[in-house]
TrEMBL record:
Protein name: Pectin acetylesterase
This protein's record includes keyword Transport: no
Database matches in PANTHER family: NOTUM-RELATED (PTHR21562), PECTIN ACETYLESTERASE 9 (PTHR21562:SF69)
Keyword match ATP-binding: no
Main localization of the protein described in the UniProt heading: secreted
Signal peptide range: none
Enzyme Commission numbers on file: 3.1.1.-
Domain of life, per lineage: Eukaryota
One Pfam family here: PAE
Length: 401
């Protein structure tokens, strides 16, 4: 664990209430916007790689939840990259949370060309054959009331990620030798249809969330999620580390824009992007970036992100192609080793993220966000960054109501 204390002005921490929660979102909902300084906690930890049955690991007190394969998925053409069945992990709610549902998109990057997708298809990122059949449920998925007080008794679902396009593609590649299914959109639909008769169709409250590429999927599917649920249901969405910026890298190239453009084209994503967004832009593929589609989302949305997101730092701002001589290697490994000029560039990236979010912050009546200064990526799935016994206090309050 690395703890960094950063001095920020009041623009560094933008928060507004959306969820009545005790964890990160509750803290963000009640922050005094006049606060001049924040303590940023950067927690460097390995992400734990989520059915109707579960196992408690007594030695580590972990909840392990079994995998459910979506047997009816082939009926609508829903397959992982390699043709295997899509899957999810479900831990049932109880008591007051029995009719509430939390769906969490798994993250794990993307593939934007045939070689990278073929390679991905032979891993857990492209096939349920290689996935762990038991997933640890922690953080926002925990069933521990003291560690996840707002969602512990909800029906909690982890949607496994095996398409490489944030659950948004609809195409197929077949050259007679290799076969790849780009069916993320259909995987999303197949899982929803499988969950509807299990209680999702009667949900009173529902939250669609996700981390990283899964956080991006929350932006892409938020309104569609609400359409599946009863009209009187309270439906909201959360993206954790999914606000990927359309930003030039240090060589002034649009590396991430080019990557997404190839991805959208290869996997047939454009037809599944928000129509209001695609019709308003000269380059419709840009609607894969959350900053362009956010204003068209009607369902209440909450954004959890770091202004110094590690993934974006390493792959959008300073991708390997822009630093062929490795001048940023030490800075990437340890922010304390960054030079003054490198810190200035990082600060510029932070400022661009805040500027991009400013309209949403100022004019979203039902949305909210919590932007901190952690050198981290994903903060809702790990218990240490969601809610821990030594979590930081804001205004000397640990749980804020």
């Amino acid at each position: 664990m690395v703890i960094l204390s950063l001095e920020e002005d009041n623009d560094a921490l933008l928060a507004r209430s959306l969820f009545n929660t005790s964890s990160l979102s509750r803290i963000s909902a009640h922050l005094d916007m006049r606060t001049r300084t924040v303590t940023a906690i950067a927690l460097v930890a390995a992400l734990l790689g989520a059915a109707p049955w579960c196992i408690y690991s007594a030695s580590e007190n972990r909840l392990l939840v079994g995998m459910t394969l979506v047997r009816n998925a082939p009926a609508i053409g829903a397959f992982c990259l390699d043709g295997s069945l899509p899957a999810y992990h479900l831990h049932r709610g109880f008591g007051a949370g029995a009719d509430n549902w939390l769906l969490q998109f798994e993250g794990g990057g993307w593939c934007n060309d045939i070689p990278s997708c073929l390679e991905r298809a032979e891993t857990r990122r492209g096939s349920t054959r290689y996935m762990n059949k038991l997933e640890v449920f922690s953080g926002i998925l925990s069933n521990n009331a003291s560690l996840n007080p707002d969602f512990y008794n909800w029906n909690r679902v982890k949607l496994r990620y095996c398409d490489g396009a944030s659950f948004a593609g609809d195409a197929k590649f077949d050259n007679g030798t290799s076969l790849l299914y780009f069916r993320g959109q259909k995987i999303w639909r197949a899982i929803i249809l499988d969950l509807m008769p299990k209680g999702l169709g009667r949900a009173r409250k529902a939250l669609l969330s996700g981390c990283s590429a899964g956080g991006l999927a929350s932006f892409l599917h938020c309104d569609n999620f609400a359409e599946y649920l009863p009209q009187n249901a309270s439906v909201k969405c959360l993206s954790d580390a999914g606000f990927f910026l359309d930003e030039r890298d240090i060589s002034l190239n649009h590396t991430m824009r080019s990557f997404y453009d190839d991805l959208v084209s290869l996997q047939g994503v454009e037809k599944n992007l928000d129509k209001n967004c695609t019709s308003s832009l000269f380059y419709p593929t840009l609607c894969f970036f959350p900053q362009y589609t956010l204003k068209y989302i009607n369902t209440p949305f909450f954004i959890l992100n770091s202004a110094y997101d590690v993934y974006q730092f390493h792959h959008i701002l300073v991708p390997p192609s822009a630093d062929v001589h490795g001048h940023w290697n030490r800075c990437k490994l340890n922010p304390a080793a960054c030079t003054d000029s490198q810190l200035e560039i990082l600060q510029g990236f932070r400022n661009d993220m805040l500027a991009t979010l400013r309209m949403f912050y100022q004019y979203s009546g039902r949305g909210g966000l919590f932007i901190n200064s952690c050198f981290a990526h994903c903060q809702s799935e790990l218990q240490e960054t969601w809610l821990a016994v030594d979590s930081p206090k804001v205004n000397n309050k640990f749980k804020m109501h």
